Amino acid sequence: MVRKLVIEENDNVTVVKGVEIDSDRKQSLIPSVEKNPACPLCRLNLKNLSYTDILIIGQFVDENGKMMPREDTRLCNRQFGIVKHLIRKAQTCRLLPRPKDWPEAAGTYDKLNSYYMYPYKRRDDMFWTVKDKYWK
Q1: CB 79 within 8 A of CB 41
Q2: b or e along 17-38 (b: 16 or more beta carbons within 10 Å of the residue's beta carbon)?
Q3: Which phi and psi (to 5°) does residue 5 adopt?
Q4: Chain centroid to CA 53
Q5: pLDDT at residue 104 in the model
Q6: Once rounded to an integer, what is the mean pLDDT over residues 42-71?
Q7: Residue boundaries of the structural domains of the chain
Q8: Fold of the CATH domain 37-102+110-118
Q9: 3-state helix/strand/coil string of 87-120
Q10: Residue 105: is its pLDDT beyond 90?
Q11: What is the pLDDT of residue 35?
């Protein structure tokens, strides 16, 4: 079911109601929690999340910049740890808002852009690609 907002104005009173209507995209809707007890990320089979996917991981951050508790997000233990790690990376790169108690940096490097090589590939390391005989 989808809700449509209906606004009714009577004299000086404005009433906003949510009326349930059938969706024309019902076949593409995600099943509700009652039908499938798996966590939201496992249910959607999202395995290769990155810290740059802020539209997805930003849903698990509250308005203060802190991660919501596991009971509210309904994530499994594995996905909760992964999302927690990704949120920390995104906050370090300033892609997501930082909490008030974020530790201040010792130098001025915190104002510069920072990125992660994710995932790390062996081909990016010159010591693995160049043969030992050339390092003399």
Answers
A1: yes
A2: eeeeeeeeeeeeeeeeeeeeee
A3: -80, 130
A4: 6
A5: 80
A6: 90
A7: 37-102+110-118
A8: 30s Ribosomal Protein S18 (4.10.640)
A9: HHHHHHCCCCCCCCCCCCCCCCHHHCCCCCCCCC
A10: no
A11: 67
